[in-house]
Amino acid sequence: MGVFSFLGDKYHDHDLFLETLKYALNCEINDLRPEDFPEIRKFPDLVVIGRWNLLDDETPWFKEEETKILEDYVRSGGMLFVWHSGLARFPESYNGLVGGRFIHHPPQKKVRYYGKDVEFELVDEHYFVDLYSDVEIFLWSESEDGTSIAGWMKRYYNGKILALTPAHSEGLKDQVFRDFLKKVLNTFVNQASW
């Protein structure tokens, strides 16, 4: 399977995200830099965005041109996995495509994640999100700060999109989370419907 990933930023450890993704997918990953984004025109099986939309100098790396490339990719049958900070600070057109956006998170604390046949807890950034379009929610999150949506899938023409808010930092090392991620990605990649 061909996978292109865009991972890590100044708040999210690139190597830990990559290691966790490799565990979950069990395949080689073409880990690219933001400036390499147009490479997805080569049409990999899966594109993973797990970094926020600011470079270290605080300029956006993902603009309208990249949204158009991504939209064409997914529309033509591509698969997109938007992970954790991949929901933060992107243009409205990107948010509309993926079906939601990050609003805020309180300081890290214990977060309970739950859905059909799954429940686990992590010390994590409890992401609160806003949904934009018709999506299929499969994971929720809950902490002392409230409840939010933590995972959804969406069809877009011939392609499909997966969005997942956990995990940050030490949560990426949690074996229960890693096995959950592996199961979710296997379902997303290999099943025609969910």
Explain this structure to me?
This protein has helices spanning 14-25, 64-75, 92-98, 175-190, and strands spanning 3-7, 30-31, 46-50, 79-83, 100-104, 109-115, 118-124, 128-131, 136-143, 146-156, 159-164. It is globular and about 40 Å long. The mean pLDDT is 96. 41% of the residues are buried. Strands 2-1-3-4-11-10-9-6-7 form a nine-stranded mixed beta sheet. It has a two-stranded antiparallel ribbon with strand order 5-8. Helices cover 24% and strands 34% of the residues. The protein is built from four helices and eleven strands; from the N terminus they run βαββαβαβββββββα. The two termini are 20 Å apart. The chain is an alpha/beta fold.
Keywords:
194 residues; alpha/beta; 9-stranded mixed β-sheet; two-stranded antiparallel ribbon; 4 helices; 11 strands; 24% helix
Element layout with pairings:
Elements: E1 3-7, H1 14-25, E2 30-31, E3 46-50, H2 64-75, E4 79-83, H3 92-98, E5 100-104, E6 109-115, E7 118-124, E8 128-131, E9 136-143, E10 146-156, E11 159-164, H4 175-190
Parallel strand pairs: 1-2, 1-3, 3-4, 4-11
Antiparallel strand pairs: 5-8, 6-7, 6-9, 9-10, 10-11
